[in-house]
Amino acid sequence: ILNYDIMARFRRRTCIILLLFILFICSIMMALKTLRPDRAGFGDPFGLGLLPELQQRTVLLDSKQNSLNRAQGDTVTRASNLHSIAVNTMKASMSPVKKLEEELSSPNYNFHIFYYTWYGNPQFDGKYIHWNHPLLPHWDPKIANNYPKGRHNPPEDIGANFYPELGSYSSKDPTVIEAHMKQMRSASTGVIVLSWYPPGMADENGEPTDDLVPVVLDYAHKYNLKVTFHIEPYKDRDDRSMYHNVKYIIDRYGSHPAFYRHKTSTGRLLPMFYVYDSYVTIPEIWANLLTVSGSQSIRNTPYDALFIALLVEERHKHDIHRSGFDGMYTYFATNGFSYGSSHHNWASLKAFCDSNNLMFIPSVGPGYIDTSIRPWNNHNTRNRVNGKYYETAFSAALLVRPEIISITSFNEWHEGTQIEKAVPKRTGQVIYLDYKPHKPNVYLELTLKWSDKYRKEQEQWLM
């Protein structure tokens, strides 16, 4: 009887150990799948307006009905007011530059980070903007009927799966702008890629933000950061409007010490413009602007610059080359979703760019989740795996030895790509994701780590 009991206990213990081992193996496999979905298919497109060409239609964002002259006049007034508020705030909070330099890592001007100033709240804007993002319906009505509709109700219920440490902030709040600059500088990023619409224009859920540019430039300069522009797909964007808008940006902001200029291999210092959804416009139109013989050519003029196109599909690389662009970036933080965002394609894209005198700027991100605004899109979620997904992306980027790495993003909260500080939060309706077991600044620290690693490896590349 004693032997029988011993054997029975042994068998039970063996079964438990075996079961735990199987569960452990399964969890490892799931984590690896989430970490490197290199061969994943496209799945459905992200959502309305995100990849217009993949849906075989062009989505152009609504502009305000004000005329451009009136919009520019209003912009000057608003900018003057915002600027004076910001200057007063800066004077009150200004600490000695030497102290800042001692506390913060040196900026890496080869690390560019996408930044959004489209958030608003009642205190600064009279209402919530973007935090109250609507739930976007699926384009298939049958699928759409299975998911909730409506919009978010801040401040407890926001259009994001994570919750910012700063709460449902306004991008106009000078203390928020300064906090953002300090976070970006602490991460050793050097160039802010500012989402930009022309005066009087905005995305379909926002308000015009061009009047914030002078304030962003001032605070960026305080932290020795530079600012470049991410030209969004505004209404009627073509060669003529782009020429006028590039001229507007350079004339208005080009003399600011924080305005970014990139030193080319020939020694020229040129502004840089990222062009989102560039593939929506045919190469022939871009060539009018970006080639020397083009009818609206900006080349060899005071407004010449480096223009970086968005690559989504493989065939876009040939269109980008024909269009006269100076390089390409991949933007999406979803490894495996598109050709451009798949890490295993970066080596061939870099080789294509090298052979055609183009810049290749891979975009790395900490993860992706947008089910707070696209509840049907969970198959495109990329789990952060406690920072491992982000580090995998950086590792893949360094393998192709890029001149610049772009980071998606500092604060695109709707798509869960932010590295801005986030905190745990639970409401009656929502349990937000967080960065635990790490601290709210973990992704800033990881960016700093990889910035240092990039610098060291770049020294080896140049030897």
From TrEMBL:
EC number: 3.2.1.130
A GO molecular-function descriptor: glycoprotein endo-alpha-1,2-mannosidase activity
Catalytic reaction list: N-{alpha-Glc-(1->3)-alpha-Man-(1->2)-alpha-Man-(1->2)-alpha-Man-(1->3)-[alpha-Man-(1->2)-alpha-Man-(1->3)-[alpha-Man-(1->2)-alpha-Man-(1->6)]-alpha-Man-(1->6)]-beta-Man-(1->4)-beta-GlcNAc-(1->4)-beta-GlcNAc}-L-asparaginyl-[protein] + H2O = alpha-D-glucosyl-(1->3)-D-mannopyranose + N(4)-{alpha-D-Man-(1->2)-alpha-D-Man-(1->3)-[alpha-D-Man-(1->2)-alpha-D-Man-(1->3)-[alpha-D-Man-(1->2)-alpha-D-Man-(1->6)]-alpha-D-Man-(1->6)]-beta-D-Man-(1->4)-beta-D-GlaNAc-(1->4)-beta-D-GlcNAc}-L-asparaginyl-[protein] (N-glucan mannose isomer 8A1,2,3B1,2)
Keyword Glycosyltransferase listed: no
Gene coding for it: Manea
Designated name of the protein: Glycoprotein endo-alpha-1,2-mannosidase
Cross-referenced Pfam families: Glyco_hydro_99
Cellular component aspect of the GO annotation: Golgi membrane
This protein's UniProt keywords: Golgi apparatus, Hydrolase, Membrane, Signal-anchor, Transmembrane, Transmembrane helix
Family annotation (InterPro entries): Glyco_Hydrolase_99
CDD domains in UniProt: GH99
The protein's enzyme class: hydrolase
Location of this chain's protein in the cell: Golgi apparatus membrane
Family affiliation: Belongs to the glycosyl hydrolase 99 family.
Naturally occurring in which organism (per UniProt): Erythrocercus mccallii
Record bears the keyword Transmembrane: yes
